[in-house]
Write a structure and sequence with these properties.
The protein is mainly β and 783 residues long. 3% of the residues lie in helices and 56% in strands. The strands form eleven sheets. The chain has a 22-stranded antiparallel barrel. It is globular, with a radius of gyration of 26 Å.
């Protein structure tokens, strides 16, 4: 099966023909010293740089060695090298020695991707084939210089890009652990960012930043990177609050990278990017495979296909799963996912398209008291969650000259949700069906090394229809509480300049203007209908100071930025109208130092958010008053790569207060620490990866304090048949409750309702994963 070359153009025409071609985008600066287009293309293609040498000690494995040099041919010491086995995605790391040499031993025969990175140079990636019984030679040379803020994503991007936010980090999927392999929940466990699911089942999981109380994800932006474009995954003003981001439509095998940053300091990120932004990057290729993951109560099957030509970027994947979870209530969960990705190059144009379809159903267990027992593990056996969505994203990157670049991006999405929950005041149903259309255009002009210009426009239109809240009556019939048809329009022009004042100073200054229009049709109380306009200007900037080389001083980056999230505008049955835009102001100080191969970072952050009204209560449909908040946090992190694996640790302490009363903000985590590591050289050719995460107690309002949450997840995997088959074990050892909050509950046999802490108990499990990769003759021949 071959995807037609004109498929991306057809989708682009369909999206552009919609009532409003709009959305949210990601735009990148490029330094004038970035490598030319032909080098960018070369680094992404597969090449064979074999050099037969003396036989190695075994006939089934080989070695890879070489030297790392700079553009002038001088040897580069202490360069970071990452080698990824393209058959099983295992990564190994090492550093070049004082003579610029490196070596990888005991490598399975096959195709590998090698990336070199060092301060002051643009990272470079090339592909090689390792032959068994040989010492394979692969010399690597940096092509161009770069500022220290430049780096490259070895999976999703072909060029170096400046990072306006110094706290920005890109993590390879191979370095991380899946959140819950074969089960619902977060796709990927991101170190230092705990994830929670508010009521279990397939309900969208959310990441939490230290000090941030956002169980629906309204202060945290989430993106999917398609080509150079960041598709915005957040859904504003949805059926149960201020919006959230649902990543369930993604197949985890399709994700190649995860990128995190502070959110407020980059003009490419607008709505919801208050405290954090997370972006999933797609893999450029996916080899044909079948993967089965199962435990005693859950089963998951993934089938993937990719073209035989190793230079073709594209794939199709299908996933189906069924399970009952580990609680007393059987979930009867069903999920179907279809993802497809394709990149075409037509002259100076690079077209990319991503398509997805998703259907999910689950009888969610719902929140239960953390103390005492509840029959069957649920307070209401009628609770359920049903979701389906479709998504089409198309992008076009046009580079007429080496100094200029245009980007044209568009998307169209549908989303349907039916959620039945009981938070202690009876069964309610929240539902909606929305269509979303959007687009972006961006222009980049690298004037000179001291100045680059970026300008663009984001457009988006959300149309949630039948946005209903209903409550079941004594006869078992759902009666409407609120019912609205909303239309939200977003227009956001932005401009930014970036450059180096000298070798010691780098600046990034930008301005983003957000214009928001809301039309609300109240179908129960027509007098509550309204049309409103609001706007906000968001200045953003970063100044980075680099110390002279060969000193112990760290680099220092100071950032300041305005951000916002769009508040739910509905009035409900009464009360005051909510704030349409909830603005915030953020400051960030980042200290970074590479000391003897260890990446050390200290991040200080302060985020002040304005008072807001209109946070819809799911039980009553009335707006709530959320006072102004002030979040202060410090994060310490360290990362060290070894030839046999890596080790990473982070510790974060935060304080979140009401800006007027000084009281603690409920449900904001105060203490988060995380340790992540991998070992790729174990006996019996095993590969291991593990992560331990601890979230300390957090206030829940009044005198209530949550229980701490501790999770230890790991994976142990072994390849057979030269990488054609993998067998692995995944496990989670957990204690505590996810989604902890305070609700008013009256359980059977109790004289009345009372406030108590509720949550979803975390379950420990062990699952087995079997993966078989199909090989083609074309993948074994010399490229």
């Amino acid at each position: 099966m071959r995807i037609p070359a004109h498929f991306g153009l057809v989708l682009l025409a369909l999206v552009g023909a919609g009532p409003a071609a709009q959305a949210h985008a990601k735009a990148r600066f490029r330094n004038a010293e970035s490598r030319p287009q032909k080098e960018a293309q070369g680094s992404a293609s597969s090449t064979d740089e074999r050099s037969p040498s003396a036989p190695s000690r075994t006939a089934t494995t080989g070695e890879l060695s070489g030297a790392v040099t700079d553009p002038q041919g001088s040897l580069v010491a202490q360069a970071d090298l990452t080698l990824v086995n393209l058959a099983n995605s295992f990564a190994r790391r090492t550093k070049s020695n004082e003579d610029g040499d490196y070596e990888f031993r005991s490598l399975e025969a096959g195709d590998y991707r090698l990336t070199i990175n060092a301060p002051g140079f643009v990272a470079r990636t090339r592909s090689f084939r390792v032959l068994a019984g040989r010492v394979n030679r692969a010399d690597m040379q940096f092509i161009s210089l770069a500022t220290e803020t430049q780096r490259v994503t070895v999976v999703a991007r072909e060029h170096a890009a400046l990072a306006p936010d110094p706290s920005e980090r890109i993590l390879l999927f191979e370095d991380l652990l899946e959140g819950n392999p074969g089960r619902p929940g977060g796709l990927i466990s991101i170190p230092g960012l705990p994830m929670e699911t508010a009521s279990g089942g397939i309900k969208a999981p959310q990441y939490f930043a230290p000090g941030v109380a956002g169980d629906h994800g309204e202060p945290i932006a989430q993106f999917l990177q398609v080509g150079e474009y960041l598709f915005p995954n957040n859904l504003p003003a949805n059926a149960h609050g201020n919006g959230y981001a649902d990543p369930n439509f993604l197949i985890s095998r399709a994700v190649g990278t995860v990128e995190t940053d502070g959110g407020a300091f980059n003009i490419r990120e607008g709505n919801h990017a208050v405290n954090l932004a997370v972006a999933y990057g797609l893999r450029p290729r996916l080899e044909p495979l079948v993967q089965l993951t199962a435990d005693s109560r859950d089963t998951d099957l993934v089938v993937g296909w990719g073209p035989a030509n190793p230079t073709t970027r594209g794939w199709v994947a299908l996933e189906g799963s069924y399970g009952n979870g580990f609680l007393g209530r059987l979930e009867r969960r069903k999920q179907w996912k279809l993802n497809g990705y394709r990149v075409f190059r037509l002259g100076r144009h690079e077209l990319a398209q991503f398509s997805s379809g998703y259907y999910g159903f689950s009888r969610i267990p719902g929140l239960i008291p953390i103390e005492g027992s509840v029959p069957n593990g649920t307070v209401d056996s009628r609770q359920l969650d049903r979701t389906h969505t479709t998504l089409f994203v198309v992008t076009d990157k046009w580079q007429p000259t080496e100094a200029q670049e245009f980007e044209f991006n568009g998307f169209f999405r549908t989303y349907q949700l039916t959620l039945r929950s009981n938070f202690g005041d009876g069964l309610i149903q929240q539902s909606e069906f929305r269509t979303i259309a959007g687009g972006n255009t961006t222009y980049v002009y690298r004037v000179r090394p001291e100045l680059s210009l970026l300008a663009g426009l984001d457009l988006r239109r959300d149309a949630p229809r039948d946005l209903d809240l209903k409550r079941v009556d004594a006869t078992g019939v759902f009666q409407p509480v609120t019912s609205n048809d909303l239309t939200l329009g977003f227009v956001a022009p932005f401009v930014s300049i970036d450059g180096a004042l000298s070798r010691y100073f780098h600046y990034d200054l930008g301005m983003r203007r957000e214009e928001v229009r809301v039309d609300n049709l109240d179908r129960i109380n027509p007098s509550g209908s309204f049309h409103r306009l609001a706007g906000i200007t968001l200045p953003k900037g970063t100044l980075t100071v680099y110390p002279p080389r060969k000193t112990l001083l760290p680099s220092v980056a100071l950032s300041s930025g305005e951000a916002f999230h769009s508040n739910d505008p509905r009035i409900g049955q009464g009360g005051r109208a909510g704030t349409l835009l909830a603005p915030s102001h953020a400051y960030q100080l980042v200290l970074k130092k590479d000391l003897k191969g260890m990446d050390l970072r200290v991040t200080l952050a302060r985020v002040a958010k304005a008072q807001e009204l209109g946070k819809i209560d799911p039980d009553t449909g009335l707006p709530g008053n959320v006072g102004p908040s002030l979040v202060r946090s410090i994060t310490l992190s360290a990362r060290r790569c070894f030839s046999f694996g890596y080790l990473q640790a982070s510790w974060a302490r935060a304080d979140a207060r009401n800006g007027m009363t000084g009281e603690a903000i409920p449900e904001a985590p105060r203490l988060v620490w995380d340790v992540l590591g991998s070992i790729d050289r174990l006996p019996l050719r095993l590969h291991a990866r593990g992560e331990y995460e601890s979230v300390g107690p957090k206030p829940l309002g009044g005198a209530f304090v949550s229980l701490p949450v501790r999770e230890f997840r790991g994976a142990l995997l072994r390849s057979f048949g030269g990488g054609r088959m993998d067998v692995g074990i995944n496990f989670l050892i957990a204690s505590g409750f996810t989604g902890q909050t305070v609700e008013t509950l009256q359980l059977p046999g109790e004289p009345g309702a009372s406030d108590r802490i509720v949550g979803i108990p975390l379950g420990s499990y062990v699952s087995v994963t079997w993966t078989y990769k199909f090989r083609r003759e074309s993948s074994r021949r010399t490229k």
